[in-house]
Write a sequence for this structure.
């Protein structure tokens, strides 16, 4: 199998944001709407807002019914008129940083990047800057706002040292659509994992419970009781003397799922200091050799099918090249 190295892609020109300015919408109830909750009724007519955002707007007075005090659960009456004011998104309290991006796809609604290893997705304790969010705040000049704030919508995450394809929403409607697709299992993700040793079968399926490790709460573990159900599929792509390159698909999205499952299989990811081997390892790497290789989903706004491949980063490509060279040399010695 030939795997391309990471190469920069051309970036489209930015578009105007979905909610760059405040907007007001008027909705009048019909007999078919009578008896519905106010928040559900608004959700049906204003597709750009999530239920949580609608409820927040009702409580803050941005969604009102003339002559009445309303709450999210208020029942809709025939002829009821609702005034929906969508305020402009507030500036994010985050720093926009000019960090190079490998963009796989971008339009006015979503952006898909090839996240490099070593980059955290969202600012957190210990990582206030240098994250995917900081980078996208600089790159995406057409953000429409998520939850009333000018920020990109993070729908799924990759671990700091896991590289690969990551899709991010640019506005509320896109984020809501992506969240629904992830929840229904419609987003297909395939990873490449270089692991120690060889799995017991060339292809297989792991189904276990995964939860917090009782001995170390910072780690996840396969559990007999408790935790959440996790399903991982793997297939052998290449075999080396002391390692295997696997294609991995996940049917669930548990924290550290792939790394935990492969370690449980007896084939921890090369370079994984949290779940991998620490002593007596012939093969070493500076970080875990796990890459989100392919991502397929239907566009949350247009419905167009997107299938994207993220070229692997140079450190993983170099390690695979050395393994292939070693295998070729070993085969040559055996043949002589």
């Amino acid at each position: 199998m030939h795997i391309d190295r990471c190469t920069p892609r051309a970036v489209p020109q930015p578009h105007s944001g979905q909610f760059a300015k405040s907007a007001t919408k008027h909705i009048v109830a019909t007999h078919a709407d009578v008896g519905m909750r106010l928040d559900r009724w608004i959700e049906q007519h204003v597709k750009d807002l999530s239920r949580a955002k609608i409820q927040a707007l009702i409580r803050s007075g941005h969604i009102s019914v003339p002559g009445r005090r309303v709450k999210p659960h208020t029942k809709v009456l025939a002829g009821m008129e609702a005034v929906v004011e969508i305020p402009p998104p507030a500036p994010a309290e985050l720093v926009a940083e000019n960090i190079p991006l490998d963009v796989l796809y971008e339009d006015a609604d979503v952006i898909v990047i090839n996240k490099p290893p070593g980059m955290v997705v969202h600012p957190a304790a210990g990582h206030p800057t240098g994250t995917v969010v900081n980078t996208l705040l600089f790159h995406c000049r057409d953000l429409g706002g998520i939850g009333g704030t000018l920020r990109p919508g993070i729908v799924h995450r990759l671990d700091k040292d896991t590289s690969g394809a990551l899709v991010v929403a640019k506005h509320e409607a896109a984020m809501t659509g992506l969240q629904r697709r992830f929840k229904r299992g419609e987003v297909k993700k395939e990873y490449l994992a270089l692991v120690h040793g060889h799995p017991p079968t060339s292809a297989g399926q792991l189904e276990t419970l995964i939860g917090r490790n009782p001995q170390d709460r910072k780690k996840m573990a396969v559990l007999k009781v408790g935790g959440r159900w996790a399903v991982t599929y793997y297939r052998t792509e290449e075999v080396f003397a002391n390692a295997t390159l696997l294609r991995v698909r996940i049917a669930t999205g548990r924290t550290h799922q792939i790394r935990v499952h492969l370690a449980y299989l007896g084939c921890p990811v090369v370079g994984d200091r949290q779940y991998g081997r620490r002593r007596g390892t012939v093969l070493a790497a500076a970080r875990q050799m796990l890459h989100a290789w392919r991502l397929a989903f239907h566009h949350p706004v247009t419905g167009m099918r997107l299938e994207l491949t993220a070229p692997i980063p140079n450190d993983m490509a170099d390690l695979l090249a050395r393994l292939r060279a070693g295998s070729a040399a070993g085969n040559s010695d055996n043949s002589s």
Summary: The chain has six helices and 16 strands. The chain has three domains: 23-87, 91-184, 190-292+317-330.
